[in-house]
Design goal:
Keywords: Methyltransferase, S-adenosyl-L-methionine, Transferase. The chain is an alpha/beta fold. The protein has one domain: Rossmann fold, CATH 3.40.50.150. Helix content is 38%, strand content 21%. The protein has a seven-stranded mixed beta sheet with strand order 3-2-1-4-5-9-8, with helices on both faces. Strands 6-7 form a two-stranded antiparallel ribbon. β4, α6 and β5 form a beta-alpha-beta unit. The protein is globular and about 50 Å long. It starts with 13 loop residues before the first helix and ends with a strand. The N terminus is likely disordered.
Length: 258
């Protein structure tokens, strides 16, 4: 698969964020192309779209995308990025200031073919209720794409950094500190598998994201193009291969609405 990373700036997250966005994009595209005919324009909801990286990428691919974002600064950045796109792409994107828990206020059940919830669940006070609301937005057979922090790998980053006390403490924890210094929750594959089954969007496929690069500095820039391609190839393969995907920093889960 040809990389799309060339279309994205490194952004404030540097290498780590760029790898996450690219690997998730490849995995998501794999699931979409396996479920829908080539060329079909899908109705996509990105709940917690951040700066709009995935939303804009999917709009460029021809889909109609609605982005929901509660942070006004992130929403402003997403709108500024959208403003630089050609008119045909701008017409396919709608951005709304709002919380992922408010989907029932804005949309009718079954309004979307694909719902994204990437990097949001760790901040939710009631994650099960959030997921249930998102699942209701899916048409029958629709795809729910979740990206969460992997609780079973929380010891990896401190361990690789030589922080043995931090590594030992993380073995028994579902809480970690994000890059902004906020304590948030990580999730476990088994628990989310049960949750998805309970909201009628059972797990269809799952991947690891950022197996080898989670311990690089948060502000690390991108390597040369050829080295980046090798890195992406390694991360892509590890994210779908046992046992590597189980120790990835993030999990990408794809449920299908029954």
């Amino acid at each position: 698969m040809l990389p799309v990373v060339a279309h994205w700036p490194a952004g404030p997250g540097g290498l780590r964020d760029t790898i996450r966005q690219e690997i998730v994009a490849r995995q998501l595209d794999e699931q979409i192309t396996s479920r829908y005919p080539v060329g079909q324009r899908l109705r996509i909801l990105d709940a917690g779209m951040g700066q709009g990286t995935q939303a804009l990428r999917l709009a460029r691919a021809g889909h109609t995308v609605t982005g929901l974002e509660a942070d006004p600064d992130l929403l402003k950045a997403a709108r500024e990025s959208l403003a630089t796109e050609p008119a045909g792409i701008r017409e396919r994107v709608r951005m709304i200031e709002g919380d992922g828990r408010e989907t029932g206020v804005h949309f009718l059940p079954g309004s979307f073919d694909v719902v994204l919830c990437h990097g949001v669940l760790m901040y939710a006070d009631e994650p099960d209720a959030l997921l249930a609301g998102l699942a209701r937005m899916l048409a029958p057979g629709g795809l729910l794409s979740l990206v969460v922090r992997n609780a079973e790998a929380l010891s990896m980053r401190p361990g690789l950094a030589g922080d043995w006390s931090g590594a030992l403490a993380a073995f028994d924890s579902d809480v970690y500190t994000d890059d902004n210094g906020v304590k948030v929750r990580a999730d476990r594959l088994d628990a989310l598998t049960s949750t998805l089954a309970g909201i009628a969007a059972p797990l269809h496929a799952w991947y690891g994201v950022r197996v080898f690069t989670d311990d690089v500095p948060a502000d690390a820039g991108l390597p040369a193009a050829e080295e980046l391609e090798r890195l992406l190839a390694a991360e892509d393969r590890a994210g779908r291969t046992e046992p590597y995907r189980r120790i990835a920093a993030l999990l990408h889960l794809c449920g299908v609405r029954g």
